[in-house]
Amino acid sequence: MSSQSVAPAYKTAPWLTLAGLLLVALNLRPALTSVAPVLGAIGDAMGLGSIGQSVLTTLPVLCLGLAAPAAPRMAHRLGAERAVLVVLAVLGAALAVRPFIGVAGLFVGTAVAGGAIGIMGVLLPGLVKRDFPDQIGLMTGLYTMLLNLGAALAAGATEPLRLAFDNDWQAALAFWLVPAVVAGGLWWSQLAPRPQATRPRRSGRRLLAEPLAWQVTAFMGLQSSLAYIVFGWLPTILVDRGMQPVAAGLVLSTSILVQVASALVVPWVATRLADQRAVLVAVLAVTLTGLAGCLYAPLGWIWPVAVVLGLGQGGSFSMALTLLALRAPDADSAAELSGMAQGAGYVMAAMGPLAIGVIHDWRGNWAACGALLAVIGLAAMIAGLGAGRNRWITPG
């Protein structure tokens, strides 16, 4: 079924539609990357050891995947745009309360925030495919660029915010409610006054029998696993290696900020090639080089290493999102593939940060984690060789 069967619920110009998409994208990572720079302070205040901190970094990624299947149902009932607005409000509420309601509230709020991000992450690629069908590479690059910018801002600013708020990590985490409120206001202002027309909801179960869909899912999950290991543990790794906490947070922020460049350029280049296999292998090779540098290179090299890591991860994540559109013949199929890839993929990705914490506790050092990172990266390359072929999933 063609994506033209459903009219957008927007009542504004395309440039404002794009602005709304980009502002929502800006909010898809601060709830996650704001935790790592103050993880030590949270652990001290809440009495969380390494395992508790591992669970805190793993939980939102797991909930990204577990909540993703709810996105098509919400879109069917509310329309995709209204579903995004509702979930954005849930994200804002979770960010507002999670630092202030104890250990259980911290974990529950983090889980809810992760679930909200997972639902929005499924809905947005379908909107990009529908509203900008002739500019998929550019629009996915812009969307990913703003997503990475939000991640970088939270990673770099949370620890300075904690210091500015008189060592109050709770206020520093709650600060990230602000961009969610701004995005919600712009998104709400664009909605038409009447509900979006609906169509029969299609099942995505047919994708379970398609190898290409599983290859896209595996690539999404494995590259995301590397990303969330970096988001959750890189500052702690660098502090243990001798860096000051503010500097370690800035290294993470720099690495994420650099992703903006490759997130914009790599999809634009890749969509002009016959297929994307070489690009997928290349960005993962660059990512693994950067990860090896973070673990083993002298600290004097950490800033150029962070740049290398960021270029690789920006390219790999933006390509994972681009594949959701390139491997689908229409917006409906893109939404179904997005739900499968981000649902199963993020559940897979959640195991990475948890495994890193367990290996560190078992071996007593971070160097031992290199083998796991290499296995994940090589497996992602194999998945990319399948997902990067110039093919479509079967339309429903």
UniProtKB/TrEMBL annotation:
InterPro entries: MFS (IPR011701), MFS_Cyanate_Porter (IPR052524), MFS_dom (IPR020846), MFS_trans_sf (IPR036259). This is MFS transporter. PANTHER family: 2-NITROIMIDAZOLE TRANSPORTER, PTHR23523. Keywords: Membrane, Transmembrane, Transmembrane helix. GO terms for molecular function: transmembrane transporter activity. It comes from the Bacteria. The keyword Transmembrane helix applies. The chain crosses the membrane at residues 50-71, 83-101, 107-124, 136-157, 169-191, 212-234, 246-266, 278-299, 305-326, 338-359, 365-387.
